[in-house]
């Protein structure tokens, strides 16, 4: 269990690098060190995080950033198949740091805040990070969809592989009956989803995973649906994508749709 914490509160304009590091290092570097030092087959890897990572707290930009990192880090470990969970604590009575500050009055709002946090975290556990809704992050979404951005990631090879595959299908539809076809389409769907969920499309995705496993929310599923239509020239609903099973299942679905498309052309 990772419970390390140092508070170094100050207004953000007065936040120097020492204060920043004082709060950030035990959580960020400390957690990373545990991740590196501990064996991969841990039964659990529990990290104490804080609701401040969701809401922020005046004077605690450093602490909030560190806790936001922890929540994302747990997802990172999970994406690698490693044990990880974070607990976003609200104010804790009777034990720990807050309890030592006897003059600190626990806000009446803490229960509301906790409930709000839990609701938000329900989304976060599905990869619905709040910052993805933030207009200030829109640029990175756009960048990742531009051709310049895609040429920088390894997946472009697969992307052009996909182009090659589609043009081979156009020449000879028998290709669709080859067992490897579903694998090619599944890989490309997974790569695309990986880009839309801001993983960059570089990492290899387990084709047994589903869209939910990769943190796809309703907005991203619409993006994937549009891409699907453009790529395979066939319709699919966001719901069908979300309930469509693994990437391999979706790959098979794409192949079936392509078969149907060419059958209708005949
Ligand atoms: N208490 C709350 O109301 C509350 C609310 C939300 C979240 N949390 C989270 O819950 C966790 C525990 O909080 P707490 O109230 O129990 O805090 P705490 O009593 O202040 O304990 C923090 C511990 O972290 C250790 N630590 C600090 N820097 C370290 C480092 N570089 N390496 C190893 N250990 C280090 C401290 O050890 P030393 O004493 O030896 O320095 C201390 O034992 C924290 O992660 C905190 O963010 C607490």
Automatic annotation (TrEMBL):
Gene3D superfamilies: ACP-like, NAD(P)-binding Rossmann-like Domain
Domain Carrier: 182-258
GO MF, any single term: phosphopantetheine binding
Phosphoprotein as UniProt keyword: yes
Top-level division of the source organism's lineage: Eukaryota
UniProt keyword list: Phosphopantetheine, Phosphoprotein
Xref: Pfam families: ACP_SdgA_C, KR
Gene Ontology biological process terms from the UniProt entry: fatty acid biosynthetic process; secondary metabolite biosynthetic process
Name assigned to this protein: Carrier domain-containing protein
């Amino acid at each position: 269990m990772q419970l390390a914490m140092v508070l170094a509160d100050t207004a953000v304009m007065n936040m120097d690098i020492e204060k920043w590091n004082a709060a950030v290092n035990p959580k960020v570097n400390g957690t990373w060190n545990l991740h590196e030092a501990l064996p991969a087959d841990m039964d659990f890897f529990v990290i104490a995080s804080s609701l401040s990572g969701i809401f922020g707290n005046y004077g605690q930009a450093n602490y909030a950033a560190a806790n936001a990192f922890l929540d994302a880090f747990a997802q990172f470990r999970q994406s690698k198949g490693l044990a990880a969970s974070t607990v976003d604590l609200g104010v804790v009575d009777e034990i720990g740091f807050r309890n030592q500050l006897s003059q600190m009055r626990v806000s009446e709002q803490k229960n509301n805040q906790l409930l709000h946090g839990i609701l938000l975290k329900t989304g976060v556990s599905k990869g619905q990070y709040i910052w993805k809704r933030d207009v200030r992050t829109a640029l990175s979404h756009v960048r990742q969809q531009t051709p310049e951005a895609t040429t920088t990631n390894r997946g472009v090879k697969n992307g052009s592989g996909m182009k090659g595959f589609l043009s081979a299908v156009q020449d000879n539809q028998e290709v669709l009956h080859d067992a490897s076809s579903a694998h090619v389409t599944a890989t490309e769907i997974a790569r695309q989803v990986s880009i839309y969920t801001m993983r960059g499309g570089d990492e290899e995705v387990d084709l047994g995973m589903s869209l939910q496993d990769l943190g796809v929310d309703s907005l991203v599923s619409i993006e994937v649906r549009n891409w699907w239509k453009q790529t395979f020239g066939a319709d699919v609903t966001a719901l069908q994508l979300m309930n469509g099973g693994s990437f391999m299942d979706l790959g098979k679905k794409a192949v079936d749709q392509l078969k149907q498309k060419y059958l209708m052309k005949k």
